[in-house]
C-alpha cells in the first residue's frame, strides 16, 4: 500500500514537472527579451528582481539533490524527462525488438521536439522563431538543429547509458550517497519468486532488479516492486524500500 502511495505521488510530481515545461512555450514562464523581464505565472521580475525566480529554481534543485542523499536518485525518477521517456519505451508491451524500435523513434521525436521548443521558447515566442527561421536567421536555425539533433542522439542512441555514465546528476548523486541512503531491497525469504522477470522487463535503467536494485544506478522508481505485485498478487512484493538508520554510539 505504501508503494501505491509512493507511485501515485511520483506520477503527480512527474505530471507537474511536465506541465511546468509545457508552460514555457505558452509563455507562462519565460525570459521576455523585449520586456527585459522574467515572466512566472502572471508575475513579472524585471532587471532588478529577475534573480529571485532563478534563485528559487536553484534552491529547488539543491533541495532535491539534498533529499537525494537520504532518499536516493529522486531527481531522476520524479523530475527528469529522460526517465519518463525510458518508462514509455521500456513498457513490457513494447517487447518485440522491431516494435520497440518504432516506439523508441516515436517517443524520441516527441521528446526532442518538446525539449527543443521548451528551450527556444524560453527566450523567443514561437511566432518570432518561425519568422526568424523563415528569414534564414542562422543563430536560431543553428541552435534549433543542434538542440534537436543532440536530444535525438541521446534518446535514440544512449538512453539509460547516458543516465548511468554521462549525466552530471549521476556523478553528484554518486558522490553524495552514503550507507544511510535509501535503497530498493530484494528479499526472497519464502522462496516465492517465480523467476518471471517482470521486474527486469519493466526497469527503466535496464537493471537486473533482483541483483542490482541496491546499486548506484537504481532510481528508486518502485516499478520493479509494482511488477512483482502484479505477478505475486495484491499486496505481495519481494521488493521493499530500505531506509538505513544511523548507528547509535555504544556507551
Ligand atoms: S531496480 Fe526497481 S526501483 Fe531501481 S530503477 Fe529498476 S525498476 Fe526502478
Ligand atoms: S517480478 Fe517478482 S516474482 Fe517475478 S522475477 Fe521479479 S522478483 Fe521474481
UniProtKB/TrEMBL annotation:
Domain of life of the source: Bacteria
Transmembrane regions listed in the UniProt entry: 12-29, 49-69, 103-126, 138-158
Domain 4Fe-4S ferredoxin-type: 182-214
Pfam families: Fer4_5
KW Cytoplasm (keyword) present: no
Keywords: 4Fe-4S, Electron transport, Iron, Iron-sulfur, Membrane, Metal-binding, Transmembrane, Transmembrane helix, Transport
Designated name of the protein: 4Fe-4S binding protein
Organism: Pontiella agarivorans
High-level lineage: Bacteria, Pseudomonadati, Kiritimatiellota, Kiritimatiellia, Kiritimatiellales
